[in-house]
Structures are given as C-alpha cells and as structure tokens.
Amino acid sequence: MNSSVEVKQPEIVVPAAGQTGLLVNGEWITPKKGRTLDVENPCRRTVITTIGASDAEDVDAAVAAATAAFPKWRRLASRSRGALLTELGNRITANVEEIARVLAAETGNALRTQSRPEVQSAAEVLRYYGGVVAEQKGETLPLGPGLFSYTTREPLGVVGAIIPWNSPVVLAAVKIGMALGTGNTLVLKPAEDAPLAVLKVAELAADLFPAGVFNVVTGTGIDAGAPLSKHANVAKVSFTGSLEVGQLVAHAVADRIGHATLELGGKSPCIVFPDAATPEHIDATVNGVIAAMRFARQGQSCTAGSRLYVHKDVFDTVMTRVVAKVNELRIGDALDERTDIGAIINAERYKEVRSFIAEAVEAGATTLTGSVPPAVEQADGFFPGPVIFTGIDNSWRVAREEVFGPVLVAIPFSTEQEVVQWANDTVYGLAAYVFTNDLTTAMRVTDQIDAGWLQVNRAGGQIPGMSYGGAKQSGIGAEYSIEGALESYTSRKSVTINV
Ligand code: NAD
C-alpha cells in the first residue's frame, strides 16, 4: 500500500438521516406531518441537509415524554445527574472536530476563530455543571423556640429551552447543564438556521440520559417555538434570542404564571479612556476593542461592543490603529482554517445588515472602513465585511438598534459624565467594556453603567461559573453559574416543624 496516498476526510459529517428529526423519549422520530426544512451553508449558499419541521402536535409529544420522565429524574441524587453532564462534556471533547465543522458550515462562523472554541467551551460548561450541581442546598432557619424550619431547592418540572443560531452549541450546553443538573427535564428547540451541531450533541446524549429527560424538537419559531412557550405543562421557558420574540415568550409564559429566563439582545458600549492609548497599552486596547465588537463572529453576538466611545484626545490615534488591524482580518469560507471572519447567517439578516449600512452612508456617516455590500442577488455568500462609521451621534438608528452584523460606530467623547450618559442611553443593558488603567476610573464608571456584565481591559467570552444575564430590556435571570441555575431553575420549598 502506498502510504503517501492522502485519505481525504469528509468536509463535514452531518447528523445521520434518522437523527435530523426529533429526539423524543429517547427515540429519533420524524414529525407527525412529515414536514421538513432545509439547512443552508451561508458562506456557499448551498443546502447542507434537510431536518424535520415540528409543529404543536410534535411539541406535545416531547412535553409529554419530559413530563413522564420528571418524577424519577428529580429524585436522582444530584451528584448522579452531575456525572451524566460531565460524561456529555467529555463526549463532546472527544468529538470537537466533527461538531465544530458542522457548526461552521451551518452558522458561517469561522472554524478556527469561532466554531472550534465554541464547542470546546460547551464541553467546559457541561463539566462545570457536572461538578457544581451537587451544591443544590437549602437553608435552616431560626424561627424561634419549638420550631425547626428548613428549605429545599425543588426543580420546576419541564423546561422548554429555545435558542438562537449565533452560538447554538454553547447555549444548548448552558440550558442542558442548568435544567437537567437541577432536576428538571428538558425540551430543547434549536434555531431553524443552525440545528445540526446541536443535533450532533443530541446524538451523543441520546443514550446517556434516561428516556424523556432530554428531548429535542427542530422547527421554526412560529410552528415549534411558540407552541413550546405556550404549553400548559412547560413549567419554565428559558429563552435566548431577540427582544421582539422575548416579549412574545414573556407574554405566553405570563398567561399561565410560568417561570421564564430571558437572555435577549444588546447594544453594548465600549469606552476607551486616554490612559489606555499610551504606547505601552494601545496594542492591547485595540485588540480588546476588536474582540469586544466580535468582528470574528461577523458582529453576530449579543454582547458585541458595537458603540465605541473613544476620548477625543486619542480618537484619531486609536481609530487609525483599529482600522488598520480590522483591515488585516481575512474574510472567507468558515471551513477554511485561514479564515478570521465568515458569513452572516441568512439572506434576510444580510439584507437587514446591508440596509443599516446603506442608510448610514446615505445619511452622511464617514466610513472609516468598509462599504455597502452587494445585494442578495449578487452575493455568492453573505459577506458584508467589517464596517466602521464615525461622524454620527447616539441618535442615529445604527447607533441605537442592534445591527447584529459587523458594523461598529465610533464616537469621540470629552468627559466621563458625558460618556456614561451616552452608554446608558439605550433600552438594552447586556454588556459593557471599559479600557483604562486607572483603577478609580474603572470602578467609578463600571458602577454607573447599567449592564449585566462589565469587562475592564478584557473583551473575552463568558467563563463557566460567572453569573451572566442582562439588565433593562436585555433580559431577566442569570445563566452560566450555579447561583443562576438555582435562582432560575428551582424554587424554594419551606418546611416548618413543631418540635
Ligand atoms: P430570534 O429571537 O429570532 O430567534 C431565537 C429563537 O426563537 C429561535 O429558535 C427561533 O426559532 C425562536 N422563535 C422565533 N419566533 C418565535 C416565537 N414566536 N415563539 C417562540 N420562539 C420563537 O433570534 P435570532 O435571530 O435567532 O438570534 C439573534 C438574537 O439573539 C439577537 O437579538 C441576540 O442579541 C440574541 N442573543 C442573546 C444572547 C444572550 O445571551 N443575551 C445570546 C445569543 C443571542
């Protein structure tokens, strides 16, 4: 045999035919009405594969399976539930490459910069919850002589989890870890644009949890997400997605006095003080600004620091460096290891991003880099490429609304008071970034900004263990931490005994 013959690996291995349907009660089934949806590669504009499209009837079956599995699952010792989460994390680690390639193909998120790190992070999240869920402790209370009172943390029941397409594997891991770890059962609905990598994770989980504990229904928001959020037997909905859909979910849950966690959008400020632009610090600051904007995920991140406020004294210096560095980023096919930035998820979102860019150009914004991308009809893949605007103020639509694309607005500021006021002048309050090497400035400014997660001289992703959640209209509840899991996925039961 000629050992020099190269065996070409398949580019991606999509979930097996039987596994592109629904996982209900431990079985892979097809939707009752037999309907399907195509999943596309946004870098190539080709169909990857076809998945089952569930509706209310299928959601009913999944919720029934989760309801039946709940009594036994909740009684399992929490450390035993944790061991299964750890095992799922380990299985993901053993299959990182295969899952990451599927993820890159369906989301358009570059393999090297985004998809592979996301899958690694999902495994870490599951191992984190695997370890800490044994901390599902209650309290004892000194209610006075003759009374002994204690609390326990009780799971809520069936959790319906609805996730978006921008980082589906790690968000699935967060929901699985929090819901199952605390003794709830789960019906997970991935986004219609990016369900395949989540189905890969479901393949790994299918024989791990008892039947009915973990179920997956694929389908559209209207046909599968809405019935799940409205279902009378779903005790809690954990939703990550847009503000608009979050409002619909909140209404649906309120109608039955259910529980909800909402992780919604953002328009996060990124503030650069002059002392972060000295020769010693400027490189780190510029890298931080670019990382905060999540350019490597085409800006499709809820925590994107998409409003950049730079002190007027260092504005030109900082922006020259930011633009030069952004222009070095390589845009291309998400499966190519050399690619830094992939594609926008679909034609509709691409059109929307394009309209934000065109509107700002039309209104006279100064373009520091980028241009209006070609119309959908002319685009081979959905690559707008990074755009940086200046010459605008906080009142412009591009500075107020979540573009969810690689569009950064840069505005000079004069005083700390002014920039804090601008930073807070938004309905959102998800994240914020502050670059300064003066500790008192950092503490004063972070204290005044209304956001769920503030980072100083850092712009990385969430780390398991930290509580993460939005302020204002960016959401309700916290995820990623054990406190978040206990607060959001359990209720306290008090027992008071006459002794
Ligand atoms: P989206 O709200 O359109 O969809 C999210 C999910 O909701 C999908 O699974 C979709 O099928 C489902 N859905 C749609 N309509 C529904 C309905 N009527 N009822 C129930 N479910 C429905 O969001 P998207 O475009 O997929 O994702 C982008 C948004 O997600 C951005 O706003 C982003 O900021 C936000 N996001 C937030 C976080 C966070 O942690 N705060 C993380 C990632 C993304």
Features:
single chain; 499 residues; alpha/beta; Aldehyde Dehydrogenase, Chain A, domain 1; Aldehyde Dehydrogenase, Chain A, domain 2; 2 domains; 7-stranded mixed beta sheet; 6-stranded mixed beta sheet; binds nicotinamide-adenine-dinucleotide
Note the topology.
Elements: E1 22-24, E2 27-29, E3 36-41, E4 46-52, H1 56-75, H2 78-94, H3 96-107, H4 111-132, E5 140-141, E6 147-155, E7 158-162, H5 168-181, E8 185-189, H6 196-205, E9 214-216, H7 221-230, E10 236-240, H8 243-254, E11 259-263, E12 269-272, H9 282-292, E13 307-311, H10 315-328, H11 347-362, E14 366-369, E15 387-390, H12 397-400, E16 407-413, H13 416-424, E17 431-435, H14 439-448, E18 453-456, E19 475-476, H15 482-489, E20 490-498
Parallel strand pairs: 7-8, 7-10, 8-9, 10-11, 12-13, 12-17, 13-16, 15-16, 17-18
Antiparallel strand pairs: 1-2, 3-4, 5-6, 6-20, 11-19, 14-15
Helix pairs in contact: 1-7, 2-4, 2-5, 3-4, 3-6, 4-5, 9-10
Nicotinamide-adenine-dinucleotide is lined by residues 162-167, 189, 191-192, 220-222, 225-226, 229, 240-242, 245, 248-249, 263-266, 302, 402, 404, 430, 470, 475.
Write a compact overview of the structure shown:
The protein is an alpha/beta fold and 499 residues long. The protein has helices spanning 56-75, 78-94, 96-107, 111-132, 168-181, 196-205, 221-230, 243-254, 282-292, 315-328, 347-362, 397-400, 416-424, 439-448, 482-489; strands spanning 22-24, 27-29, 36-41, 46-52, 140-141, 147-155, 158-162, 185-189, 214-216, 236-240, 259-263, 269-272, 307-311, 366-369, 387-390, 407-413, 431-435, 453-456, 475-476, 490-498.
